[in-house]
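Hey team,

Filing this mostly as a record. A colleague (T.K.) asked me to run one chain through the structure pipeline before their review meeting, and I want the input and output archived in the tracker in case anyone asks later how it was produced. No errors, nothing strange. Just documentation.

Input sequence:
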Amino acid sequence: MKTVFAFLVIVVAGCVAWAQAPNAGGSSDDISGMYSFLQGGEFVQINVEDGGLVTGFVSRYGDSDADKGAFLDHTFSEGSLKGNAIHFKTRVVHGISYEFSGTVERGSGKTAADDGYRVIRGKLTEYTEDANKKMNARSRELTMKSFPQDAVADRPQKD
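Output structure:
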């Protein structure tokens, strides 16, 4: 009886650990990873949490006189994934924030190790604050392509 009980404890503990472990290989439905942004070297890190909560950040080059060429990270202030519909907003950094709404699609890459295995298409709105503290909005269509998964595993994630 003790052997059966010990076996059941080990099985249950193993199942709990397996369920809580991050998916290192990445499920075919898991869109978490890095995606291209507006120009070469800029990217979006997307992390899909339980219940469709999306966290992450936009990492972009500064373009004002004060931050020209510096990397600026805009963390998500909110984000969600419902089916293949994704939405996120970023915090304001140096007077700029972003909002994106779109869809996740299968791209031209054959495996997750290929560039563009997934694409996220939609509308990106850039909010900029002028000298009078008035927010201006500019929208455009954007396609973000996934980076190869093996390249993503070597890069640190931000909270």
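Quick notes for T.K.: The longest strand covers residues 71-82. Strands lie at 33-36, 43-48, 54-61, 71-82, 85-90, 96-106, 118-129, 135-145.
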